[in-house]
């Protein structure tokens, strides 16, 4: 009886450990190193992997020789194809074996640009960045404050995002001014890196004579380039806006078109990210009026998910509302950013 009890105890302890080991994800890199644990994601050229001894670490994708995972993943390729399946072990160097509903594909690792776990829990589908900055100058009591929040919610077919920014400036020489924006969008993903969706936006820019600009519209876009070091996509659409004029009870409504371009570059040897966005917005209601905005952001990795962030933003309006409104306004901010 004693031997049977001992054997039963060993089975109870050993079998879960063996199952856990068997189901553990695995990554091989630099031709000799092997790690077992949990694959988190591949994004912007870095594979995030978690082990009990290291917590979550990042490995440059171009150093990875092989990877396997029993999780159901969304696997995006550089040709725009998106597969849903598991990554099986393979002896083929520099290739990934993807088993999905229609069979098994063997693809080059360099063709894989994103791995995302299909999360069961709603809260695990969120990711984003929070940023903040403060600049104080004693000479003329200059003060500037900046806050930012970017969040995304991802499912198999849809991506929804929230983008919030706020900049406040004041000094002895100039009155307090505010520039804030809130943008909410939801897009349906289609084949070949195309997408379409809707957007809702709110803006405040006192320098350009806008107390509140509300907009609602539709958008269509396509990613023209997506690799492990670069992302470039274009989009366009139509929107209706209502502008409440600063210092007045008047308001204006407009129909507008817009076309925009986004470019992202991310390096590995130097932990630097660059993001730039340009949008041109011609009015369909007011002849000759054209608005536009440009944003350029640099981020340097300090440690882990903590970054130092520099951002430049410029807004232009050829025919702003209000008699004393400026036609151009820009902001420059710096501070810390944290990815979550």
| Percent of residues in helices | under 10%
Record the strand order, biggest sheet.
10-11-12-13-14-15-16-17-18-19-20-21
| Name of the level-1 CATH class of the largest domain | Mainly Beta
Name the CATH superfamily assignment of the largest domain: Autotransporter beta-domain
How do you describe this structure in short?
By secondary structure, this protein is mainly β. The chain has 1 helix and 21 strands. The protein has 2 domains: 96 residues, SH3 type barrels; 217 residues, Beta Barrel (Lipocalin), CATH 2.40.128.130.
Overview of the structural elements:
- It is a single chain.
- The strands form 2 sheets. A 12-stranded antiparallel beta barrel has the order 10-11-12-13-14-15-16-17-18-19-20-21. Strands 1, 2, 3, 4, 5, 6, 7, 8 and 9 form a 9-stranded antiparallel β-sheet that branches.
- The chain starts with a helix and ends with a strand.
- It is globular.
- The longest helix is centred in the first third of the chain and has 22 residues, at 2-23.
- With 340 residues, it is mainly beta.
- The chain folds into 2 domains: 23-118, SH3 type barrels; 123-339, Autotransporter beta-domain (Lipocalin), CATH 2.40.128.130.
- It is built from 1 helix and 21 strands.
- The chain has one helix at residues 2-23; strands at residues 25-29, 33-43, 46-51, 55-60, 64-77, 82-88, 95-100, 103-108, 112-117, 126-137, 142-154, 158-170, 177-189, 194-205, 210-226, 230-245, 251-266, 272-282, 290-303, 306-317, 328-339.
- 6% of the residues lie in helices and 67% in strands.
């Amino acid at each position: 009886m004693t031997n049977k009890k001992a054997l039963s105890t060993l089975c109870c302890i050993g079998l879960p450990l063996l199952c856990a080991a068997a189901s553990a994800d695995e990554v091989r890199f630099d031709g000799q190193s092997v790690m077992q644990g949990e694959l988190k994601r591949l994004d912007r050229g870095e594979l995030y992997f978690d082990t009990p001894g290291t917590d979550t670490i990042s490995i440059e994708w171009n150093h990875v020789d092989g990877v396997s995972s029993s999780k159901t993943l969304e696997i995006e390729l550089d040709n725009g194809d998106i597969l849903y399946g598991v990554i099986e072990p393979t002896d083929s160097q520099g290739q990934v074996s993807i088993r999905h509903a229609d069979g098994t594909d063997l693809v080059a690792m360099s063709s894989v640009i994103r791995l995302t776990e299909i999360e069961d829990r709603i809260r695990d589908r969120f990711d984003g960045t929070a940023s903040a900055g403060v600049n104080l100058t004693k000479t003329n009591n200059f003060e500037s404050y900046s806050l930012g929040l970017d969040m995304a919610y991802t499912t198999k077919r849809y991506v929804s995002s929230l983008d919030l920014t706020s900049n406040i400036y004041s000094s002895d020489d100039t009155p307090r001014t505010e520039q804030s924006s809130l943008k909410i969008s939801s897009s349906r993903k289609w084949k070949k890196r195309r997408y379409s969706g809707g957007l809702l936006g709110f803006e405040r820019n006192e320098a350009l004579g806008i107390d509140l600009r509300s907009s609602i519209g539709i958008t269509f876009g396509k990613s023209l380039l997506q690799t492990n070091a670069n992302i470039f996509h274009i989009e366009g659409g139509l929107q209706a806006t209502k502008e409440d004029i600063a210092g007045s009870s008047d308001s204006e409504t407009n129909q507008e078109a817009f076309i925009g371009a986004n470019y992202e570059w991310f390096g590995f040897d130097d932990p630097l990210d660059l993001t730039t966005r340009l949008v041109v917005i011609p009015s369909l209601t007011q002849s000759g009026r054209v608005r536009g905005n440009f944003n350029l952001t640099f981020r340097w990795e300090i440690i882990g998910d903590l970054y130092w962030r520099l951002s430049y933003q410029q807004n232009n309006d050829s025919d702003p509302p209000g008699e004393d409104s400026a036609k151009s306004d820009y902001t420059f901010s710096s501070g810390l950013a944290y990815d979550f």
